[in-house]
Write a structure and sequence with these properties.
Blueprint: H1 4-15, E1 22-26, H2 28-37, H3 43-51, H4 60-66, H5 72-83, H6 88-93, E2 97-104, E3 110-114, H7 121-130, E4 140-142, E5 145-149, H8 158-163, E6 169-172, H9 187-193, H10 198-223, E7 227-230, H11 245-262
Parallel strand pairs: 1-2, 6-7
Antiparallel strand pairs: 2-3, 2-5, 4-5
Helix pairs in contact: 1-2, 1-11
Length: 263
């Protein structure tokens, strides 16, 4: 739900006709970033508002029944195909590249994937994989790999995109500038429930080190004028899975306001 800040930024960019050559999204950034390529202003906020009280979308019922906090079939296939359709045709016709980041649970390495047409079942499974939170999601099997949330191994993939040849990048953060990540307090749960995937335990144990190093690199690139950095002024007033309509609208509005200030 913190990603609705990103959705607010992207909605302003679409309204202003801002075009970019490529996007790389991680987790919610990928779920919402694809709407930029399909040109669907407001869609991310709209379907989250409409689905917030629907137990088929996200919640304890789905977790108990399927082992996934986000219902795999409903959230990533039924919803974008039937309930609030994702504009597959516009996405396929766009010249904007769209990349996602996942984490290989066997090796702990980041897996980068450029998603292209057709926007089919496998396409949406890549979106599910990049946003499949550990502990509350089963790994997603794609191309012979078992994948989970890309934020575990490459939370801010600026260096990856620079290596792809993108010279000036707009980086949207969901944490305020000056934020420092600490080791997750959930390590006892990771050690207890992720024994089958020791690489995930190691990645999560070191994630704060990786993330803080990426923040230092962002600051360096920002000073050099090689990126445009957009971040909230303060900690976003919403939890990762908190489905409060008022808070979702507030976070989305904060993203819009941050983008307007940049413009």
């Amino acid at each position: 739900m913190r990603g609705l800040f990103t959705a607010g930024v992207l909605d302003v960019m679409m309204e202003r006709g801002i075009k970019v050559d490529g996007i790389v999204g991680v987790s919610a950034g990928a779920c919402f970033g694809c709407n930029y390529v399909s040109g669907q202003i407001g869609r991310a906020l709209r379907y989250n508002m409409n689905m917030k009280d629907d137990p088929r979308y996200m919640g304890i019922r789905s977790l108990i029944r399927s082992g996934n906090l986000m219902d795999a079939e409903f959230a990533y296939h039924t919803l974008p195909d039937e309930i609030d359709p994702f504009d597959k045709k516009t996405f396929a016709q766009s010249t904007t590249e769209f990349h996602v980041v996942c984490t290989d649970v066997i090796t702990g390495d980041p897996v980068y994937k450029r998603l292209t047409a057709p926007v089919d079942y496998e396409f949406m499974e890549w979106i599910r994989a990049t946003s499949a939170l550990p502990l509350v999601s089963h790994p997603v099997e794609l191309e012979g790999r078992l994948l989970l949330d890309g934020g575990m191994s490459d939370s801010i993939p600026l260096k990856y995109f620079q290596k792809q040849g993108f010279e000036h990048n707009i980086v949207i953060l969901t944490q305020p500038l000056g934020f420092t990540k600490k080791r997750t307090k959930l390590m006892p749960l990771f050690r207890a429930f992720m024994k089958k995937y020791p690489a995930v335990i190691e990645v999560m144990n070191r994630r704060h080190i990786m993330y803080n190093a990426q923040l230092e690199y962002l600051a360096q690139e920002n000073r050099a004028g090689r990126i445009t950095l957009i971040a909230p002024d303060d900690t976003l007033p919403i939890g990762r899975t908190q489905q409060s309509g008022k808070r979702m609208q507030l976070v989305h509005r904060m993203g819009r306001e941050a983008a307007e200030r940049i413009f």
